[in-house]
TrEMBL record:
<feature type="region of interest" description="Disordered">
    <location>
        <begin position="1"/>
        <end position="29"/>
    </location>
</feature>
<keyword id="KW-0472">Membrane</keyword>
<protein>
    <recommendedName>
        <fullName>TadE-like domain-containing protein</fullName>
    </recommendedName>
</protein>
<dbReference type="Pfam" id="PF07811">
    <property type="entry name" value="TadE"/>
</dbReference>
<feature type="compositionally biased region" description="Basic and acidic residues">
    <location>
        <begin position="1"/>
        <end position="11"/>
    </location>
</feature>
<keyword id="KW-0812">Transmembrane</keyword>
<feature type="compositionally biased region" description="Low complexity">
    <location>
        <begin position="14"/>
        <end position="29"/>
    </location>
</feature>
<dbReference type="InterPro" id="IPR012495">
    <property type="entry name" value="TadE-like_dom"/>
</dbReference>
<feature type="transmembrane region" description="Helical">
    <location>
        <begin position="85"/>
        <end position="111"/>
    </location>
</feature>
<keyword id="KW-1133">Transmembrane helix</keyword>
<feature type="domain" description="TadE-like">
    <location>
        <begin position="83"/>
        <end position="125"/>
    </location>
</feature>
């Protein structure tokens, strides 16, 4: 009989060890003649089962695969695991949506800040020429942001300062991010 090592399931016996024949190599037995659920014949290392054999060992000392001896066990396990990915996805979906919502909200904040800077420069340019700075300021921003825009001007000596305040839109009702405020100063040209 061939030498059998540990690692085949923890008990020191290989699948089909009682009816195994020596193969002439140390550590190898022919599995499948009397093993549990053995379907195939051929050489397999003790502890690392080949497809079609009993599948008792995993090649690690003291560990064994449970429930791999019969074909019916694999079908039951496969049927039991079906739908698991869908359940995990449903559990992860709220987190994914929250991250996407936060990314879009940050984009809106950055866009509104950029629009406030544009409005402040347009208002300051118009005020430096003694033009309608409030209307020019509102015209410089996107139409959907124009309603929440205010551009007061302060004239002091040889320069004009316009502070544009554009209300940041919120995707979540009830959350108020306040306005984006930018200031631009230009010399008076009139």
């Amino acid at each position: 009989m061939a030498r059998i090592r540990k690692g085949d399931g923890g008990d020191g016996r290989a699948a089909g060890a009682t009816a195994s024949r020596p193969t002439g190599r140390t550590g190898r037995v022919r599995v499948g003649t009397a093993g549990i659920g053995a379907a195939g014949t051929g050489k397999a290392r003790v502890g690392a089962a080949r497809a079609g054999t009993a599948g008792i060992g995993t090649g690690r000392v003291g560990t064994a695969r449970v429930g791999t001896a019969g074909v019916g066990t694999a079908r039951i396990r496969k049927a039991r695991d079906r739908g698991q990915v869908a359940i995990e996805y449903i559990g992860f979906l709220p987190i994914l949506l929250l991250v996407a919502l936060a990314a879009v909200q940050l984009g809106l904040i950055a866009y509104t800040a950029q629009q406030a800077g544009t409005a402040a420069r347009a208002g300051a340019r118009s005020a430096s020429l003694a033009g309608p700075h409030e209307a020019d300021c509102r015209a410089a921003v996107s139409s959907w942001l124009a309603d929440g825009t205010s551009c007061p001007a302060s004239i002091g000596g040889d320069e004009v300062t316009v502070t544009a305040s554009v209300q940041i839109p919120s995707l979540v009702p009830g959350w108020d991010f306040g306005p984006a405020v930018k200031t631009a100063t230009m010399p008076r040209d009139h």
